[in-house]
């Protein structure tokens, strides 16, 4: 069997070839490739010393920090499976993921220990397998640094092949329950190579990771930089600061970053005097994704980043990268997500019977890539639904124009993208529907200048059971991550809710009524 290098192999290689080169940094510390390799090896050994064995799942709940990069490499070295958890989720949501993944250990940032402590009874783990990032241990937790200190530099690790699982990436589903997308080392390496090939990344690059490291975007780009030996800078601020971002781009001489439209809009809104303070001429490539971008936004990006070439991608945790709108196409094909990535295979748009639709007509988007995911964890039925032979879908609807460019119509049916975060209406509807005063509810996305889309709930109340918008929003905030909670709650009579003949709410019609 041909063996592809894992990210652990890649970091070891760079540690031999360029040991003193800066491999990664955040605002608190930095790692040469030699440091990175050594600490990841000791961390892998320390985790083995806690009784974790190849194939065990390790949940990670943390905001962006350099430790994510050490952890991904250490877990790959020991053959352990990373389960990155969105740190913005509520305690019940975190509990569901850790329980579903059958996590053998949980590693958390200090600010998330209370969240994990609140759900320990739902995730029965050995006390020694709760690890807090940093030096100061919390009650019932081992410190991250103590685990590294107990690791051995000469530890022996199991063989890890391209067929071994490297991560369970949990994605929300239309049922409201997250699904664990299985990613193997082979696919991880291939997407890194495809990204480097298409975008021309080399060891001379400096990549700034702003998107959460629990998300596929930062993981896939981070993996690419690990393979090619580029330097990674982690934006570890707890909230997005546009001036601080521009300062980092200038001071670190960043050559690439990936942002959502909201980030770019906030940067472009900075006063001209502020923007002129910083030299961002090193930025040669920029990625925009996760939501449509207006023409004026793209023009503003190109004006401010004068040496930057702008790319726009469409992809998913399951597919990996699918399409790319390249720099010379940004304005001519505004609104399109481009054509296939180099090496990504092909795209088919199919009708419900599995037949390809003609150009200009809408069909369900299927792609065939060498780095597609390997199914949903413990969900064979959902896995079967995602594939037609080698062709994979996540339910997105699109059309292809005569030039072969793809135009998304619906994002996973009714999915809402707010500030780069995916919000599934059915999940929010399930929470609101549990309120005793709510008879029926539909959740839609409405345009928002800053966030791309905002979440709005349209509610039908039971007769004689009043509830206010503030009460329902508070109900959601106790049960959902903040970005999923409705920004607006409006009320309609039962007869005014648009439905099919079978009573199913017509979300698209409702959205047209609300937005106009």
Can you give a write-up of this model?
The protein is built from 16 helices and 27 strands. The chain has 516 residues and is an alpha/beta fold. It folds into three domains: 1-17 and 32-152 and 159-204, 3-Layer(aba) Sandwich (Rossmann fold), CATH 3.40.50.12780; 335-413, Roll (Luciferase, domain 3), CATH 2.30.38; 416-515, GMP Synthetase, Chain A, domain 3 (2-Layer Sandwich), CATH 3.30.300.30. A nine-stranded mixed sheet has the order 2-1-11-10-12-13-14-15-16, sandwiched between helices. It has a five-stranded parallel sheet with strand order 4-3-5-6-7, with helices on both faces. Strand 8 (165-171) and strand 9 form a beta hairpin. The radius of gyration is 23 Å and the shape is globular.
How many domains make up the coordinates? 3
Largest sheet: 9 strands, mixed
Number of strands: 27
- Strand arrangement in the largest pleated sheet: 2-1-11-10-12-13-14-15-16
Give the class-level CATH name of the largest domain.
Answer: Alpha Beta
Question: What is the fourth-level CATH superfamily of the largest domain?
Answer: ANL, N-terminal domain
**Average residue pLDDT:** 91
Strand content: 15-25%
Shape: globular
* CATH fold assignment of the largest domain: Rossmann fold
Low-pLDDT parts are none
The count of helical stretches stands at 16
Note the quaternary state here: single chain
Helix content estimate: 25-40%
Report the CATH architecture of the largest domain: 3-Layer(aba) Sandwich
**CA gyration radius, whole angstroms:** 23 Å
**Would you tell me the structural class of the helices and strands?**
alpha/beta
N/C terminus separation: 57 Å
GO molecular function: medium-chain fatty acid-CoA ligase activity
Domain AMP-binding enzyme C-terminal: 427-504
Keywords: Ligase
Domain AMP-dependent synthetase/ligase: 14-377
């Amino acid at each position: 069997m041909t063996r592809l290098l894992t990210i652990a192999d890649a970091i070891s290689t760079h540690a031999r070839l360029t040991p003193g080169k800066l491999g990664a940094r955040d605002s608190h510390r930095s790692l040469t490739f030699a440091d990175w390799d050594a600490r990841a090896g000791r961390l892998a050994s320390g985790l083995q010393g806690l009784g974790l064995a190849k194939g065990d799942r390790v949940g990670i709940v943390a905001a962006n920090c350099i430790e994510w990069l050490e952890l991904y490499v250490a877990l790959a070295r020991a053959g352990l499976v990373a389960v990155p958890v969105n740190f913005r989720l509520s305690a019940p949501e975190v509990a569901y993921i850790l329980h579903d993944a059958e996590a053998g250990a949980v590693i958390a940032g200090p600010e998330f220990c209370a969240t994990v402590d609140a759900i320990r009874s739902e995730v029965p783990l050995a006390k020694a397998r709760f690890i807090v990032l940093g030096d100061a241990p919390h009650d019932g937790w081992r410190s991250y640094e103590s685990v590294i200190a107990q690791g051995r530099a000469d530890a022996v690790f199991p063989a890890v092949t391209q067929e071994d699982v490297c991560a369970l990436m949990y994605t929300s589903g239309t049922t409201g329950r997250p699904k664990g997308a299985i990613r193997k080392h082979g696919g991880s390496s291939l997407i890194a190579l495809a990204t480097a090939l298409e975008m021309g990344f080399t060891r001379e690059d400096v990549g700034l990771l702003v998107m959460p490291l629990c998300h596929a975007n930062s993981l896939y780009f981070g993996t690419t930089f690990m393979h090619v030996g580029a330097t990674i800078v982690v934006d570890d601020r707890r909230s997005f600061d546009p001036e601080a971002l521009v300062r980092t781009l200038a001071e670190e001489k960043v050559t690439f970053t990936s942002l959502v439209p909201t980030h770019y809009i906030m940067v472009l809104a900075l006063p001209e005097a502020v923007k002129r303070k910083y030299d961002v001429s090193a930025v040669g490539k920029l990625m925009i994704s996760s939501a449509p971008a207006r023409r004026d936004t793209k023009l503003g990006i190109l004006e401010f980043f004068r040496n930057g070439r702008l790319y726009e991608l469409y992809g998913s945790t399951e597919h990996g990268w699918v399409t790319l709108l390249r720099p010379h196409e940004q304005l001519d094909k505004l609104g399109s997500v481009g054509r296939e990535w180099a090496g990504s295979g092909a795209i088919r748009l199919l009708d419900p019977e599995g037949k390809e639709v003609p150009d200009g007509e809408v069909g369900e988007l299927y792609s065939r890539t060498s780095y597609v995911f390997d199914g949903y964890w413990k969900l064979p039925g959902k896995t079967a639904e995602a594939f037609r032979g080698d062709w994979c879908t996540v339910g997105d609807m699109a059309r292809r124009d005569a030039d072969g460019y793809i135009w998304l119509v619906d994002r996973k049916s009714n999915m809402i993208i707010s500030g780069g975060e995916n919000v599934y209406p059915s999940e929010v509807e399930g929470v609101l529907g549990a309120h005793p005063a709510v008879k029926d509810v539909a959740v839609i996305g409405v345009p928002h200048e800053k966030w791309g889309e905002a979440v709005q709930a349209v509610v039908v109340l039971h007769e004689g059971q009043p509830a206010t918008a503030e009460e329902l929003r508070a109900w959601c905030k106790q049960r959902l991550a903040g970005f999923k909670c409705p920004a607006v709650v409006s009320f309609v009579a039962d007869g005014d809710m648009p439905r099919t003949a079978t009573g199913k709410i017509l979300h698209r019609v409702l959205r047209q009524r609300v937005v106009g």
